[in-house]
Amino acid sequence: MGKDRTNVDPEKIPWDALRTLIGQSVFGGKIDNEFDNKILTSLVNQFFRPDCFNHDFKLFTVPPDSSEQVLIVPDVKTHKLFL
């Protein structure tokens, strides 16, 4: 997929397959009720998509009238800078 590159175009990642693998194989086998499964599906769909590679990708949104800050993925490359 990367063809000797150091990165991969997010549009070329098989997102449906990745979401299915994470949602059903990794966590889905541990879920025993429909409500929890819907929550898992919602989270997997929120975080595993091409937009998650954008520097301004919002991890969570807040209502427009809220004074809370929106959490975004930090634009850093090391654990130390992340902290």
What keywords describe this structure?
mainly alpha; Helicase, Ruva Protein, domain 3; 3 helices; globular
Give an overview of the whole structure:
The protein is mainly alpha-helical. The chain has a single domain (10-82), classed as Orthogonal Bundle (Helicase, Ruva Protein, domain 3), CATH 1.10.8. 36% of the residues lie in helices and 0% in strands. The chain is built from three helices and no strands. It is globular and about 40 Å long. The mean pLDDT is 84.
DSSP E strands, number: 0
- SS summary, helix count: 3
- Rg value: 16 Å
Give the CATH class. Mainly Alpha
What is the CATH homologous superfamily assignment?
Region D6 of dynein motor
- Derived structural class: mainly alpha
Mean pLDDT: 84
Secondary structure: helix percent: 25-40%
Number of domains: 1
For the termini, the CA-CA separation is 31 Å
Binned strand content = under 5%
Q: Remind me, CATH topology? A: Helicase, Ruva Protein, domain 3
Gross morphology is globular
The biggest beta sheet reads:
none
What's the SSE pattern?
A: HHH
User: What's the architecture in CATH terms?
Assistant: Orthogonal Bundle
Low-confidence stretches: none
Furnish the topology, listing elements before pairings.
Elements: H1 15-26, H2 34-47, H3 79-82
